[in-house]
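Before a colleague's protein record goes any further, I have to sign it off. What it holds is a sequence and that sequence's fold in token form. My question to you is simply how this chain folds and whether the tokens agree. Thanks in advance; the entry in question is below:
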Amino acid sequence: MKTKKCKVCHQVKPINDFYKFKDMKDGYRNECKICSNNRTRINKAKRGREYNNEKSRIYRETNRERIKAYYGGKLTCSRCGLQSVCFSVYDFHHVNPAEKEERIGTLINKGWDKIEAELKKCIVLCANCRREVHNCEKN
């Protein structure tokens, strides 16, 4: 069995106790999984919950602005023409539900490529129009 010495705890451990990392000569990180997880835990505690929440908030806001830019700078309901400053007024309606992979609200925390791919399948509707559309689809 292949082994490796951890640079942090200096113990020789099986190679399965190390995360894969293609840039290293042997293809594995220099610190074992336990030491790596401990370091991550300590660093997150130093930064604190507020830091992580603030970072996420900024990321979501940036993605909202990119969505607005994708639609020409201002969102408009495709059905009634409503234009509002408030982003929360709008819903993204998948024209073909079979093509839907994930909700835009869920993707707002993920990468732009995924968001853009879903936006191509959607039309913008205000909350009222979207509910009317879904009610008509059910009936």
In short: The CA atoms of residues 29 and 75 lie 46 Å apart. Residues 33-70 form the longest helix (38 residues). Strands lie at 3-5, 12-14, 18-20, 28-32, 90-94, 122-126.
